[in-house]
Design goal:
The protein has 196 residues and is an alpha+beta fold. Helices cover 20% and strands 32% of the residues. The chain contains three helices and seven strands. The strands form two sheets. The protein has a five-stranded antiparallel sheet, with no helix packed on it. β5 and β6 form a beta hairpin.
Length: 196
C-alpha cells in the first residue's frame, strides 16, 4: 500500500534524482540527446524492473520541448511585415493551412488553421508540432491555440526570424501528444476598434 505521507528516508534518493534530472535537462537543452528509442527503453525496463511506459513518460518529462518553459521564450514585438505563405495540406478529412507569416525583428509568427472537411460537428484539437526544415537551426514553440467544432488554430513562434524568402525553408507537422498550452491570465476584449 502506498502512503500519501512523504518519507524522510526518501529525501537522499530524491536529492539524487533531482540532481540527475537537472544534468539531463541541461544536456538536452544544449542539443545532446532526446528521448531514447524503444529498444533502449526496453533494455532499461528489463535491467531495472521498471515498466517501459513509466520510463517513456519519465524521459518525455526530462526532454523539454521547444515550447517548454525551461527554455527562454521570445515575445514578438513590433510587427514589421506580413509574408504570404499559402501552404495547404489535406489529410484524414482535415484541411491544414498556413496563410501567412508575421515578421518581427526578433521572431516570426506562424498561424496554423485546421478545418474539418467532414464531420464539422466534432471538436478539433491540434496536437502537432511545427518543424522548420532549413540550412539554419530554428526553435519553434507553441504560443497559443484553440479548438472547437470543425475548426482549430494554433500559433507558433519561430526564432530567430525566418527569411522573407519562403523558398529557403520547408514547413512540416509532426505529432505532439504532449502539447500543452501555458494558461495565461484571461483578458476580455469587448471594445469597438477602428483601423487606420
Amino acid at each position: 500500500m502506498v502512503s500519501d505521507a512523504y518519507s524522510v528516508e526518501l529525501r537522499s534518493i530524491d536529492d539524487e534524482l533531482a540532481r540527475w534530472a537537472a544534468r539531463r535537462l541541461a544536456k538536452v537543452a544544449a542539443g545532446e540527446g532526446g528521448v531514447p528509442g524503444q529498444d533502449v527503453i526496453d533494455q532499461l525496463s528489463r535491467a531495472h524492473g521498471i515498466p517501459a511506459r513509466v520510463l517513456t513518460s519519465l524521459y518525455r518529462l526530462l526532454t523539454p520541448d521547444d515550447h517548454d518553459v525551461a527554455r527562454p521564450q521570445v515575445r514578438p514585438e513590433e510587427l514589421e511585415s506580413v509574408v504570404p505563405l499559402l501552404k495547404r495540406a489535406r489529410k484524414d478529412g482535415i484541411l491544414y493551412q498556413i496563410s501567412r507569416m508575421e515578421q518581427y525583428p526578433n521572431a516570426s509568427l506562424i498561424v496554423l488553421d485546421a478545418i474539418a472537411l467532414e464531420d464539422a460537428a466534432s471538436e478539433l484539437v491540434l496536437q502537432v508540432k511545427l518543424v522548420i526544415e532549413a540550412d539554419s537551426v530554428y526553435r519553434v514553440y507553441l504560443q497559443s491555440g484553440f479548438g472547437g467544432p470543425g475548426r482549430a488554430s494554433t500559433t507558433y513562434v519561430v526564432t530567430p526570424r525566418l527569411p522573407d524568402d519562403t523558398s529557403a525553408f520547408r514547413l512540416r507537422l509532426v505529432p505532439d501528444h504532449h502539447a500543452s498550452l501555458h494558461r495565461l491570465p484571461r483578458r476580455v476584449l469587448d471594445r469597438a476598434v477602428e483601423f487606420e
